[in-house]
Queue: 2 jobs
Job 1
Amino acid sequence: MTALAGALAERIQRDGPLTLAAYMEACLNDPEHGYYRTGAPIGAAGDFITAPEISQVFGELLGLALAQAWIDQGQPAPFALVELGPGRGRLMADALRAARAAPGFLESARLTLVETSGPLRAAQRRALESAPLTPRWAARIEEIEPAPLFLLANEFFDALPIRQWRRAPGGWRERLIGLEAGRLAPVLSAAPADRPADQAAILDAAPEGAWYERCEAGEAIAAEIGRRLAASGGAALIIDYGYDAAMRRSAGWRETFQAARRHEFADPFAAPGEADLTAHVDFSALSAAAEAAGAAAAPLATQGAVLRALGAEMRAAALAKAQPDAAETVMEGVTRLIDPREMGALFKVLGLTARGAPPLAGFG
Ligand code: SAH
């Protein structure tokens, strides 16, 4: 048992079963034992690898897409340049290098990294040591000054806590974390649970056995982004593995809660605090939250389509030509990002702006 498992078992004995969101929150962010507070999760030596770690082209193209949106919106200055959950800082380092191509962009930007992990803040500081902008850090997006907002988030929303419900005979039950023979185990609530009322129309059409997942923290952040875009302009590019409502139906209403340890799927209840816990992102819920707050969402696109439209293959060819020794690695990396059999189709890009703003580059 991990130290955190012991503490959670005591808490459950005292207060009763936890929601999955409370369990995820403790596993990821417990001040002493939380996964992100202690470890170094990302990269070959960690538990999982992400797009900016695979190829510099990812951050370069997203940086250029943001700079293009800034130009299309009349070069507002000053503006808030923000990344949510920057990991080891690669994406922003690559984005800033590429964005030097847009005169005035970096000079007008105030860079804030929204990050709660101490070890990852330190890694971000190192990655941006020789960058053209010096970052500030914030723990929450609410701390950022009101200003036009140009924002990136890659694999951030999948790390936020979700709750789960399952349609059982006789009604919906919430998945809770309880104790079985002294060990943490998932159970379904004994009583029919209140399904999220605002989702009634969708949920009442779901078949028995269906899972429904909800990320309240993610929806709140999407709403905050939406409010800021509506008030002051800007653009947000949110990239993650995930689905929309139609995909959820066609994929059979399955659950997506998962744990990763050393690049393998793991049991999410076996070693709390030591595995990365995530869930696929419900992009319909995020865009609905942003739109309700006054923003506009581009139709959800795949990562492969957006990166291709932004010129990923051309950029890869140019890099390969400039460094013939690394040509194979460069081409392999970009293929991994855009090929639908790899990350190209599973990962989606949600593009948000103010209503009536010029369309974002990369979205067809
Ligand atoms: N974007 C990076 C890292 C993805 S991992 C990449 O693509 O490599 C998720 C990141 O979000 C980590 O930096 C993690 O510490 C951060 N994070 C997770 N939950 C957070 C929260 N509630 N608030 C701020 N940052 C959070």
Job 2
Amino acid sequence: MTVSTSADDRPPLDRPPLDLAVLSADDALLPGLRVEVVEEAGSTNALVAEWARAGEPEGLVVVAEHQTAGRGRLDRRWETPPRAALTFSVLLRPRVAPASWPWLPLLSGYAVGKALRAVGHDAAVKWPNDVLLGGRKVAGLLVERVESPAGPAAVVGIGLNVSTTRDELPVEQATSLALESGGAAAPDRTALLVGLLASLGESYVAWQEGGADAEARLAESYAAACDTVGRDVRVDLPSGEPLHGRASGVDANGRLLVDHDGRTTAVAAGDVVHVRAQA
Ligand code: BTN
């Protein structure tokens, strides 16, 4: 007998909604964070940017159960099925000097990787802030600066694939927590969100309030979690040009240092491909 396994025959995926009671409990979140869950949104980054322009103080978090026009880095899109992922944005108003702002995307990717490691996933960061499991991308971040009458703000947008199936992922190099968990039930998105926000908050506070050494400490922690340094890479630069070389470090401004043709180029933006495993 042949058993058909068309999409229609599969058992429905269990994708419960976020637990609003947990998220609104007094001690669930770091002080100052306020979570709004919306059923559907085009882009949570766009929503939070609007709030920022209207003067909202830092700490607002908007989560979409279904994000339909998510924005990615380098003008890409980020789309996920309803309740299969965590798609959310956090409004921050950093008080650090403008020269330090480029660290925020790296700090955020580092914090997501740390939160996933805390719940047993062997997460690494690909410069600047893709989060990888087993070499595949499980989370992407888009950090955008917004000008507002109350001063500049940052919107930290995070997309994490939770129960997304292989068929639902847009590219072969992507993965989800469920796919990497060897058949275990998909983790609870509410608990994950609480853990991600705690990790982000902790790294953010340490960076802002850690005094003169805070950035050096962040640079050290980031380098330890970053899987790119030491690898042969191809960087697709915003100009469209590829840069081939070996990633040798991250400079004081968070730029990726790439050794090639007898010299070193500091890359501020680009899409990195890990070409060969680290020796
Ligand atoms: C990337 O890897 O290209 C970044 C993807 C960032 C996606 C997140 S999902 C929540 C937030 N809202 C958006 O529109 N984008 C970010």
